[in-house]
């Protein structure tokens, strides 16, 4: 056969006509084209197959045309070394066929056994290895029936997000399903959709199977059976006999005939019985039923494994108090056959399956018998005759199963989320029904017969399509709660509620409710609880509901609110536009009232008359004063009045029970003198962000009765005199007194605070911290950054100290005790420019999980090149009261070929894995996407979608908010104005300061803040819980990861581009926790007052903590220096003296582990880590240790040019040989790089597929250690050398493996196998030789462990140390470091002559900037400050400009 033209093929694919194969492959006798690729067989599908294979072209045969099946055995996935690229997977014929029509594509069919899924995947996890994989080329019109006919298959199955597996209907079209899934994710370009569909990473999101996956764990839980020796009864009268034994549901079933179920079946109910091991017989269990007529069976198993499996499962059954069978989340299409023998089942859970109506185990057979059962002591009249509870939610039924209405014993029925449109009249048969859940369907009406269910007391109708309250509810007198959240009720007539006298609890949130009308004077006396949250009400008068106890009406547009106060107990009315609240009579039963985020200028008089009010929240209003009667209330325990305009607080006249008082962000200049000795129960006081100059005394006498535990005084004008006034608060646990005017802290006073646990003294003018801090034995957190401290405090002897932050001070040395407390986890000493650390000190610090130090670097003439970027940045992360940090940042001051930058922040909420992965991949992904499109909305959107895919199995159950900022020139005008493109999902936000005013650049994708997203999620029938979370999981409607919540939660980002101008001062990136506490305007004013971006970021986080944030906080501040014309040209290079400021210190990360030195650990934003096993001899006095990787790797060959997001055009470096001249003479020569790192020869540990593999330049080996003279976070470099010697040099296989235990660790350096004590000259023809060496091949084709970019910059200046790095050979980053500057580097004799020749050729290149060939090289985007000058490409031997090796950017490998 011959393949026909592209046009004919396109038509054939659409009309199911025959297509052939072009010439180029050998055609066998049977008409199949045998592809020439190894291990690949291409079978031609068509109507006219030869007789040798059997013809399917008869009248009844399906038209399986336009289908090609490529079978590849044991293909690995997720970027492993055995994977193949798109080019090697498909021949040229197949690629041409795919290019002919975007409606064509590839479907990957997996065998019945699958890769192991993580435990989070539930029952679908499998522990068996993957088998054959078939690649099927077809069109979007190809049906399952056609595919099965071509393959002689019985069916196809689809699995989403590693979860449930569903059988596809014969008429469904797999490729169209795949394309629709990608389109729903956010892909818009059909060509891109076709590319993505062939990507193997997609199998973690959607996967097709040719057979139902085998799952041993599922089979064990649903059914156990086998032929074993059985004896009935406890006496010896019965003999042992081999019988078929089955354990299913709640019963043990024993057949009366061996290997057959044709005879009588003996049923032994096990619930309430017992199962015991028989000691006298090996592998024997005794099963006994409950009750006086208990029966006993002895079963002797053949193996210990069988014995343990049966014992484990039977023990679960006998321990139950009710006869319940849970078969939820098993991808079941029918009830297991043997389950019908369990006649005592009362509760059956079939939730999250794909139950069908027909078939032996279909729902039609639940209420009745299809054939007589030959059993002993079984009622033959009905199956499940005692069934009381049936859960069929999330089964995609489509129609209400009327057969269920025949199970008259049901008291509870759950049919939620089944796409039901109607309820049959037969529902009236279930007279015993008490609970009916119909949430998450498409119902708009209910049958009148439903009103006859007199015992029904709970009816769930939430998230349907009701436009009014069903009238049938008037007859359901036992129903006391109306659950109709998420419907379409726009108008509520109170007279309708009056007729339903039995309804007490009304839930109408998320309905788009616009009016609540009361046309008559009739009182609604029965309603006690009313929930009207998240509607569109602008006024609300509920005075006719005279017995109302609880009202929730948050997030409306209420301007007025009128209520009856007779029985009112709780009022929640935040986030409205209220100027007053009218309640009559005075609500004497009111205990809690929340009126935050309104427009109240004063509090109503009735508030002071409430006799039982305990909690009042009036934050974020316009209050100018608080009534004296309110503060002197004898019932008020918690008063939140922050973010108002209060100028004074009334005096306390008598002792009050007040326990918590929040007065932050007001205009207070003083506090009441009697505050502390009148409010003796006060435990929490926050008066941050005021103008206080002093605080009141704790008592009137020397003896204090204060019980104050938390005191927040940040952001006032307090001086050191306040220290004496704090002494009386001897129960104080938390003290924040940051950003005041403290010159010192009285030593004698600090010693009195013996119970102090957390102390924040940041942003003052302290020169020392008193030595009496050692008296605070319970102190675990000391934060004192941004002071003038020059003496290290005596805190390392404290037994419980965990965190010490002394960054941005003036420390010069550290005096340490002989040993450090084992509790110390984090020590931040960055920003202390004069700090010198000895080997002994660093050795003592080696056990600290996170150690942050400045990395010293030397300044050379060429360093001025990297100091001229029009921006610089700083960042800060704080874990708060959480035990782990789930926020990561990405910072790249030099990104891409030109003057560009990239910044990002990622917040995983409760998980740290996904933020680390995104931190490590998104920079590279953006770099790749920029190769394909110059349209901002396209490349940014695709960056997020690709990163979502690259999360792999980690992204199935876990997710993160993400924000990415890209500063660039417009593609149409590369030398013109700069623009800032921002993309985000979730709740991370970006703010630009323009002329001193904040400009919001991002969109908050939370259900509470985005009405259109709320509507989209509602339309897709998600269940939104009362805390406004999708399925109770997340409040975000868009995230990276959490793919199991698709299509409710999507990864498609908001994209916005803002042109930059000279009025733009800086950019702030922050997570949800930051901007919940710090407003945009305050954030802008805060950064304006601090010149250093790092200090500004730290201040933002400290302020958020002092304002009450307990969660993880992350902030990035980018200082912008944009000229009038957005000019970013670098100044001419001078070899005489450097221009610009000296380079800032560079962060270094060290984490070698004893089990495996190549273990990698990650860190957000580029801080790095030491392990406790780092010896002092490995650590330099100003830098850190050089960790080694003892593993030798036979790495792959060199990948051609790879434009990395950090170093897209790095050239080969010159090499300086001892005696060849100083660095100052030849700035183009190699300089010792302080931020050098070791690169791991081990494989990636997270299964990601990032194509960032390329040779690394500037590699120095010294002894067993290896230095890499590049940025520690750069994972791909561009080679400028001669043409490749062979096509093999152009291809590089990927490496990958699943990350250990699903845990991701901090990452920012890489490790390389050591070679020997020689200097590696990586240039010219030496590259090929080095690639062939087993010990150096890992340098030419080894990516970062995540295949990603983590960018440290000059404002990081950190060595962050992590003991948490997994001790596994393919873990995350371990030990970067560098050697002492005095180390002697040795050039082997075999290379010395060639190196000297190269050095001679470099001299003319550094004479000045006049040589045009050096200009693009000098602008090579290496790291901003910390790095040596870029090296000229002409250093590479060879005439003329060296050709740049090209690489296929897009790799859709399996």
Automatic annotation (TrEMBL):
Bias kind Polar residues: ranges: 1169-1197, 1400-1413
Keyword Metal-binding in record: yes
Classification via InterPro entries: Leu-rich_rpt, Leu-rich_rpt_typical-subtyp, LRR_dom_sf, LRR_domain-containing, LRR_R13L4/SHOC2-like, PPM-type-like_dom_sf, PPM-type_phosphatase-like_dom, RA_PHLPP-like
Catalytic activity reported: O-phospho-L-threonyl-[protein] + H2O = L-threonyl-[protein] + phosphate
Swiss-Prot/TrEMBL keywords: Cytoplasm, Hydrolase, Leucine-rich repeat, Manganese, Membrane, Metal-binding, Nucleus, Phosphoprotein, Protein phosphatase, Repeat
Main location: cytoplasm
Compartments where found: Cytoplasm; Membrane; Nucleus
Any one Pfam family match given in the protein's UniProt record, by short name: PP2C
CDD domains xref list: PH_PHLPP-like, PP2Cc
Domain (PPM-type phosphatase) ranges: 872-1120
A GO term from the CC aspect: nucleus
Protein task: Protein phosphatase involved in regulation of Akt and PKC signaling. Mediates dephosphorylation in the C-terminal domain hydrophobic motif of members of the AGC Ser/Thr protein kinase family; specifically acts on 'Ser-473' of AKT1, 'Ser-660' of PRKCB isoform beta-II and 'Ser-657' of PRKCA. Akt regulates the balance between cell survival and apoptosis through a cascade that primarily alters the function of transcription factors that regulate pro- and antiapoptotic genes. Dephosphorylation of 'Ser-473' of Akt triggers apoptosis and decreases cell proliferation.
Enzyme nomenclature, EC number: 3.1.3.16
Obligatory cofactor(s): Mn(2+)
Biased composition (Low complexity): 9-20
Compositional bias of kind Basic and acidic residues: 1286-1297
Domain of life: Eukaryota
GO molecular function (one): protein serine/threonine phosphatase activity
Organism from which the protein derives: Lates calcarifer
Top-level taxonomy: Eukaryota, Metazoa, Chordata, Craniata, Vertebrata
Protein name: PH domain leucine-rich repeat-containing protein phosphatase 2
Renumbered residue ranges of the record's region Disordered: 1-35, 48-67, 1130-1204, 1285-1304, 1400-1421
Membrane protein topology class: Peripheral membrane protein
């Amino acid at each position: 056969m011959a393949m026909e033209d592209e046009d004919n093929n396109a038509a054939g694919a659409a009309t199911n006509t025959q297509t052939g194969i072009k010439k180029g492959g050998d055609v066998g006798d049977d008409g199949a084209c045998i592809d020439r690729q190894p291990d690949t067989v291409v079978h031609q599908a068509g109507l006219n197959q030869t007789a040798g294979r059997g013809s399917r072209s008869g009248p009844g045969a399906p038209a399986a045309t336009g289908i090609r099946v490529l079978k590849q055995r044991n293909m690995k996935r997720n970027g492993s070394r055995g994977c193949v690229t798109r080019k090697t997977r498909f021949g040229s014929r197949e690629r041409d066929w795919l290019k002919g029509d975007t409606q064509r594509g590839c479907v990957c069919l997996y065998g019945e056994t699958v890769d192991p899924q993580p435990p989070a995947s539930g029952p679908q996890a499998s522990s068996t290895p993957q088998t054959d994989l078939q690649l099927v080329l077809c069109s979007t019109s190809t049906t399952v029936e056609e595919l099965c006919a071509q393959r002689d298959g019985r069916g196809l199955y689809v699995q989403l997000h590693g979860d449930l597996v569903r059988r596809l209907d014969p008429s469904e079209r797999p490729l169209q399903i795949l394309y629709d899934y990608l389109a729903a994710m956010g892909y818009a370009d059909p060509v891109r959709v076709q590319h993505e569909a062939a990507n193997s990473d997609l199998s973690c999101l959607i996967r097709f199977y040719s057979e139902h996956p085998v799952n041993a764990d599922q089979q064990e839980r649903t059914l156990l059976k086998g032929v074993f020796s059985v004896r009935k009864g406890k006496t010896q009268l019965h003999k042992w006999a081999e019988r078929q034994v089955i354990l299913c549901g709640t019963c043990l079933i024993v057949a009366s005939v061996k290997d057959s179920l044709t005879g009588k079946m003996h049923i032994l109910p096990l619930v309430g019985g017992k199962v015991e091991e028989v000691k006298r017989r090996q592998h024997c269990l005794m099963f006994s039923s409950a009750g006086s007529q208990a029966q006993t069976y002895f079963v002797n198993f053949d193996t210990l494994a069988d014995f343990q499996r049966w014992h484990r499962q039977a023990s679960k059954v006998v321990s139950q108090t009710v006869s319940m069978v849970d078969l939820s989340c098993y991808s079941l299409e029918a009830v297991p056959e043997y389950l019908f023998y369990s006649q005592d089942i009362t509760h059956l859970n079939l939730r999250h399956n794909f139950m069908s109506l027909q078939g032996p185990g279909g729902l039609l057979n639940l209420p009745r018998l299809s054939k007589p059962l030959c059993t002993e002591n079984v009622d033959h009249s009905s199956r499940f005759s005692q069934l009381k509870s049936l859960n069929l939610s999330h089964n995609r039924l489509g129609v209400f199963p009327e057969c269920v209405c025949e199970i008259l014993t049901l008291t509870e029925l759950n049919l939620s989320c089944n796409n039901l449109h109607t309820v049959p009249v037969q529902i009236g048969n279930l007279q015993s029904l008490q609970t009916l859940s119909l949430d998450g369907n498409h119902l708009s009406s209910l049958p009148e017969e439903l009103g006859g269910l007199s015992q029904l007391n709970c009816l769930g109708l939430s998230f349907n399509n009701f436009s009014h309250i069903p009238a049938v509810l008037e007859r359901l007198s036992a129903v006391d709660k109306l659950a109709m959240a998420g419907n379409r009720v726009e108008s509520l007539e109170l007279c309708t509620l009056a007729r339903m006298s039995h309804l007490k609890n009304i839930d109408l949130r998320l309905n788009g409710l616009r009016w609540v009308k009361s046309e008559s004077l009739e009182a609604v006396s029965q309603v006690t609880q009313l929930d009207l949250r998240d509607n569109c009400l602008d006024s609300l008068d509920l005075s006719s509901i005279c017995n109302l106890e609880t009202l929730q009406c948050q997030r409306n547009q209420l301007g007025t609110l009128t209520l009856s106060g007779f029985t009112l107990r709780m009022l929640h009315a935040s986030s409205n536009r209220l100027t007053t609240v009218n309640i009559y009579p005075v609500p004497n039963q009111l205990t809690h009232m929340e009126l935050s985020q309104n427009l109240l200028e004063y509090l109503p008089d009735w508030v002071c008359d409430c006799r039982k009010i305990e909690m009042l929240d009036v934050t974020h209003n316009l209050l100018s004063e608080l009534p004296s009667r309110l503060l002197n209330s004898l019932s008020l325990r918690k008063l939140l009045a922050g973010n108002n305009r209060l100028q004074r607080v009334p005096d306390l006249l008598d002792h009050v029970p007040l326990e918590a008082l929040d007065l932050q962000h007001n205009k207070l200049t003083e506090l009441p003198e009697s505050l502390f000795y009148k409010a003796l129960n006060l435990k929490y006081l926050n008066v941050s962000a005021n103008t206080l100059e002093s605080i009141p005394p704790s008592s009137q006498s020397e003896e204090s009765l204060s019980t104050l535990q938390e005191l927040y005084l940040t952001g006032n004008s307090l001086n050191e005199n306040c220290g004496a006034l704090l002494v009386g608060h001897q129960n104080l646990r938390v003290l924040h007194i940051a950003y005041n005017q403290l010159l010192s802290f009285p030593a004698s006073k600090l010693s009195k605070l013996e119970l102090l646990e957390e102390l924040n003294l940041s942003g003052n003018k302290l020169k020392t911290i008193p030595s009496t801090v050692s008296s605070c034995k319970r102190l675990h957190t000391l934060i004192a950054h941004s002071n003038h401290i020059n003496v290290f405090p005596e805190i390392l002897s404290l037994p419980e100290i965990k965190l010490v932050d002394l960054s941005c001070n003036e420390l010069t040395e550290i005096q340490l005790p002989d040993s450090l407390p084992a509790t110390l986890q984090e020590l931040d000493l960055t920003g202390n420019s004069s700090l010198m650390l000895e080997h002994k000190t660093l050795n003592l610090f080696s056990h600290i999980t996170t150690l942050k130090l400045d990395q010293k670097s030397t300044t050379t003439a060429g360093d001025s090149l990297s100091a001229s970027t029009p921006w610089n940045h700083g960042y800060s992360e704080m874990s708060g009261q959480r035990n782990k940090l789930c926020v990561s940042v990405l910072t790249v001051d030099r990104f891409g070929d030109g003057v560009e930058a990239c910044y990002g922040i990622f917040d995983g909420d409760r998980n740290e894995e996904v933020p680390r992965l995104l931190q490590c991949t998104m920079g590279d992904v953006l770099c790749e996407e920029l190769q394909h499109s110059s349209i901002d909305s396209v490349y940014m959107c695709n960056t997020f979608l690709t990163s979502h895919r690259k999360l792999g199995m980690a992204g199935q159950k876990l997710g993160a908010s993400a924000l990415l900022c890209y500063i660039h020139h417009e593609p149409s005008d590369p030398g013109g104005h700069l623009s800032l493109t921002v993309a985000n999902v979730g709740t991370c936000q970006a703010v630009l300061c323009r002329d001193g005013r904040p400009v919001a650049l991002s969109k908050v994708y939370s259900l509470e803040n985005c009405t259109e997203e709320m509507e989209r999620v509602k339309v897709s029938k998600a269940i939104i819980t009362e805390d406004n979370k999708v399925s109770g999981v997340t409040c975000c409607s868009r995230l990276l990861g959490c793919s199991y919540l698709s299509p409710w939660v999507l990864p498609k980002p908001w994209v916005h581009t803002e042109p930059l101008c000279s009025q733009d001062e800086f950019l702030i990136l922050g997570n949800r926790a930051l901007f919940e506490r710090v407003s945009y305007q305050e954030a802008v004013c805060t950064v304006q007052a601090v010149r250093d971006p790092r200090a500004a970021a730290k201040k933002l986080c400290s302020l958020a903590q002092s304002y009450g944030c307990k969660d993880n906080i992350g902030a990035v501040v980018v200082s912008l220096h944009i000229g009038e014309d957005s000019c970013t040209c670098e100044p001419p290079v001078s070899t005489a003296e450097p221009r610009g400021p000296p380079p800032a210190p560079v962060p270094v990360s060290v984490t070698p582990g004893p089990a495996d030195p190549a273990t990698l650990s990650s860190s957000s934003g580029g801080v790095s880590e030491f392990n406790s096993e780092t010896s002092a001899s490995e650590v330099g006095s100003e830098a850190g240790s050089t960790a080694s990787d003892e593993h030798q790797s036979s790495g792959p060959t060199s990948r051609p040019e790879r434009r990395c997001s950090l170093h897209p055009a790095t050239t080969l470096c010159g090499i300086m040989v001892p005696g060849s001249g100083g660095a100052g003479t030849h700035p183009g020569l190699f300089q010792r790089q302080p931020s050098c790192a070791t690169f791991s020869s081990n494989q990636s540990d997270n299964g990601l597929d990032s194509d960032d593999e390329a040779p690394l330049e500037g590699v120095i080996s010294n002894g067993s250690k290896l230095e890499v003279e590049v940025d520690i976070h750069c994972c791909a470099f561009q080679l400028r050398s001669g043409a490749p010697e062979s096509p093999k040099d152009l291809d590089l296989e990927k490496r990958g493996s699943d990350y250990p235990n699903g845990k991701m660790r901090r990452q920012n350096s890489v490790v390389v196998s050591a070679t020997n004590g020689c200097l590696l000259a990586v240039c010219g023809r030496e590259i090929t030789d080095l690639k062939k060496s087993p010990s150096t091949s890992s340098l030419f084709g080894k990516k970062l462990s995540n295949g990603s970019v983590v960018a440290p910059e000059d404002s990081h200046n950190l060595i962050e140390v992590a003991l948490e790095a997994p001790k596994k050979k393919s873990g995350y980053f371990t030990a970067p470091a560098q050697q002492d500057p005095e180390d002697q580097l040795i050039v082997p004799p075999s290379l010395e002559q060639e190196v000297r020749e190269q050095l001679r050729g470099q001299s003319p290149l550094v004479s000045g900037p006049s040589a045009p060939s050096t200009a693009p090289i000098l602008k090579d985007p290496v790291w901003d400050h910390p790095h040596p000058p870029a090296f000229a490409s002409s250093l590479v031997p060879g005439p003329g400009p060296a050709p740049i090796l090209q690489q296929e950017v897009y790799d859709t490998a399996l």
